[in-house]
Amino acid sequence: MGPTASGKTDIAIELCRRFPFEVISVDSALVYRGMDIGTAKPDADTLGETPHRLIDIREPEDSYSAGEFVRDALEEMRSIFESGRTPLLVGGTMMYFRSLTAGMAELPAADAELRAAIDAEAEERGWPALHEELRQVDPVAAERINPNDSQRIQRALEVYRLSGRALSAWQQSETDAAPAEDIAFEKLALLVEPRSLLHERIALRLERMLDAGFLDEVRRLMRRPGLRRESPAMRAVGYRQFWSHLAGECSFEEARSRALAATRQLAKRQITWLRSENGLKAFDALDSGVTDAISGSLAARQD
User: Fold this and answer.
1) What are the angstrom distances between the C-alpha of 105 and each of 102, 171, 175?
2) How far is CA 81 from CA 70, 130, 139, 183, in A?
3) CA-based nearest residue to 134, from 113, 110, 117, 158
4) What is the reported pTM?
5) Do the beta carbons of residue 217 and residue 35 sit within 8 Å?
6) 3-state DSSP call for residue 216?
7) DSSP letter at 7?
8) Most CB atoms within 10 A, among 7, 51, 205, 273?
C-alpha cells in the first residue's frame, strides 16, 4: 500500500522477480480501459513482464464498487493460490484494502477534506447541480433528497466518492461482501517523508503525464457518447480538472493547479488511512535499500 507517487509499481515488479508473486491491482482507476496516462497505468512492456490482474476490466462509462472489487479480488487470489503462487496486492485505493481485509459492515466514516471539496464544488456550481450528479450515481437517494438539501446531498456524494457504492445500496444491505477471513495478510506500506518530497514527486509525475499526452487522452474520453464529467471514472484525479479546461471553463494553468491540489489531497487521505491501519509495516519509499528491506521482511515471514 502507499500514497500516490510513492513508487509502488516499481517495487512490486522487483518483488515479483524475487518471489513467486502475481500482482493484483488495488486501484479504483486502473480498472478502466482507455484511462492509461492519467492513472499512471503500467505500460505494455511492464505488463508483459509482470501481468497485473484487475486492470482494464471496465469501460469508463461503467461503475465499479468496493464490493465488486472484493468479489473479483478473492476470485483472483484463489486462482493464484491454486497455481502454487502468492498474490501481491498493490495499489492506493485504501477503501478496497479495508473492505477486503475487514469487510464492509459500516458506512464509510465522514471525511473532512472530501466534505470541504464538495462544499467548494457547491459554491462554484450550486447544490442543484450536485443533486443532478447524485441522480446519475444514486437515483434512489436523489429521489428522496431535495435538490437544496445540502447536508444530505453532501453525505450521499461523500459516501459514493469514498466507496464507489451508492448510499442507497449501503442502506439496503448491511454488507456487500464478506472479508477474506480465511486468508492471512502481510500489510506493507511505502511512505515518503517529509511530505514536501512527496509533493515534489506528485508535481513531477503530473508534468510527465502531460508530456506523455494526458490532454489528448482526456479529449478522447470526452468524445465517448456515454461518458460524462460526473461519471464515476472521472473522479480519478486530473481527469475532471482537465475536462473543465478542454470544455473552455478554465485555463490550462488553472486546471493544472487544481489537478495538483486534488492529487495532494488524495495523498493526504491515503496517508490518514494508512496511519489507522492495524498491523502495518511501514517502509521508507526513498531509501535505496527499501526493496531489500521488504524482501527481508517477507523472507522472515516465510521462515
Assistant:
1) 9, 11, 5
2) 16, 44, 39, 10
3) 158
4) 0.79
5) yes
6) helix
7) -
8) 273
Q: Which three cell numbers stand for residue 270?
A: 491515503
Is residue 209 within 8 Å of 106, Cβ to Cβ?
A: no
Residue with cell 491501519: 277
91 pairs with which residues across the strands?
Answer: 26
Highest mean pLDDT among 62-76, 173-187, 281-295: 281-295
For the chain, domains (ranges, CATH) are: 8-105+182-302 (3.40.50.300), 112-172 (1.10.20.140)
pLDDT band at 174 (very low <50, low <70, confident <90, very high): very low
Q: Give 69-103 pLDDT, tens digit per residue.
A: 988 999 999 999 999 999 999 999 998 998 888 87
Q: Residue 301: in which H helix or E strand, if any?
A: helix 290-302
Sheet holding 52-53, edge to edge: 52-53, 21-26, 86-91
Q: How far apart are CA 229 and CA 162, in angstroms?
A: 17
Q: Provide the 3-class DSSP secondary structure of residue 78.
A: helix
* Residues 218/220/225/228 CA torsion (nearest 10 deg): 0
